[in-house]
């Protein structure tokens, strides 16, 4: 038997579907690794994996068809086929009650899925079908952290709905002496937290870097340990960032100097203190922050509402907008929704 489905994503790694018996010997899996689809299964005798060479994480719909007959298997991704045959032995995958799409509720064994692919995926799914012709249920048995898939966009951007939504870009980000943050934003609300790096163990006196929208102004705030550095930019009368256009923001923290530039406007700078290191190594929050995380550097707690793209951090390779560590709330990885 087998199944087929269509998906679209910008993520390079993540679980498309997975299930296993309690011992995680018999299993069935499908995941992205470096933008390529891998299918794996075990009927009780050996692990079998098939992978295609075509890269599919360009944000357009891709069709995956999987067929298995005992220890024979075929994986087809957008018309590209790959086949595999296992050793003779057991032929039935036993003890699998559910298929989990987009993630998995418990820890996945390392030998079943590559370590960097062992994460939930930000993707849209449609047209799930068994080869027998039987359709999947219209509603899943259970959903967790699932949001609406908006219409396709040509641009590669992320949409934050702004109601308690946020992502953890990475679990352990170190700020240090120098960092340059750049991004394009298209906000739909004049107030919202764009990103926050705070010392969660020291909410009152810990170091931090925070960027927020506050009543239409862009505000950045940094603590190196000897006083808060803050600078901001406010639009001229009659202007607004909520104009359905992209606006570029660049934040530079170089030792004890902080700089903020919005679009082509002159940068605003501030220099303060003698300490040069923001001693923060913690979760990197984008678009908002959990209710239980506190910091003296955060003035705006409401989530950012709007689109964000081209997010980059120089002198760091661990932040990838389309491969976050986790996401919460209504976030779409496929750009701003198109008005009907």
UniProtKB/TrEMBL annotation:
What cellular component terms from Gene Ontology apply here?
membrane
Q: Which domain of life is it from?
A: Eukaryota
Question: Which SMART domains does UniProt cross-reference here?
Answer: LamG
Q: Which residues form a coiled coil?
A: none
Which Pfam families would you find in this protein's record?
A: Laminin_G_1, Laminin_G_2
Q: Any idea what this protein is called?
A: Laminin subunit alpha-like
């Amino acid at each position: 038997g087998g199944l087929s489905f269509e998906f679209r994503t910008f993520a390079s790694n993540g679980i498309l579907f997975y299930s296993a018996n309690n011992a995680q010997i018999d299993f069935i899996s499908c995941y992205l690794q470096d933008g390529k689809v891998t299918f794996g299964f075990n009927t009780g005798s050996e692990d079998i994996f098939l992978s295609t060479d075509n890269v599919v994480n360009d944000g357009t719909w891709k069709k995956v068809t999987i067929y298995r007959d005992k220890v024979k298997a075929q994986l087809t991704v957008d018309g590209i086929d790959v086949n595999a045959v296992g050793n003779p032995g057991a032929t039935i995958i036993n003890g699998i009650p559910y298929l989990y799409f987009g993630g998995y509720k418990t820890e996945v064994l390392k030998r079943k899925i590559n370590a960097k692919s062992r994460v939930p995926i930000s993707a849209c799914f449609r047209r799930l079908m068994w080869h027998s012709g039987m359709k999947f249920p219209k509603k899943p048995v259970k959903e967790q952290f699932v949001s609406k898939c908006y219409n396709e966009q040509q641009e590669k951007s992320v949409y934050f709905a702004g109601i308690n939504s946020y992502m953890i870009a990475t679990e352990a980000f170190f700020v240090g002496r120098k960092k340059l943050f750049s991004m394009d934003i298209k906000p739909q609300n004049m107030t919202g937290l764009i990103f926050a790096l705070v010392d969660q163990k020291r909410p009152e006196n810990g170091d931090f870097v925070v960027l927020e929208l506050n009543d239409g102004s862009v505000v950045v705030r940094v603590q190196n340990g000897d006083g808060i550095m803050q600078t901001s930019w406010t639009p001229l009368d009659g202007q607004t960032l909520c104009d359905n256009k992209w606006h570029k923001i660049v934040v530079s923290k170089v030792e004890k100097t902080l700089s903020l530039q919005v679009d082509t406007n002159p940068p605003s700078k501030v220099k303060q203190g003698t300490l040069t290191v923001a001693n923060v190594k913690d979760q990197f929050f984008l678009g908002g922050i959990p209710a239980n995380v506190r910091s003296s550097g955060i003035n705006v707690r409401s989530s950012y509402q709007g689109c964000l793209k081209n997010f980059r951090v120089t002198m760091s390779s661990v932040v990838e907008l389309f491969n976050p560590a986790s996401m919460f709330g209504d976030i779409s990885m496929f750009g701003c929704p198109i008005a009907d």
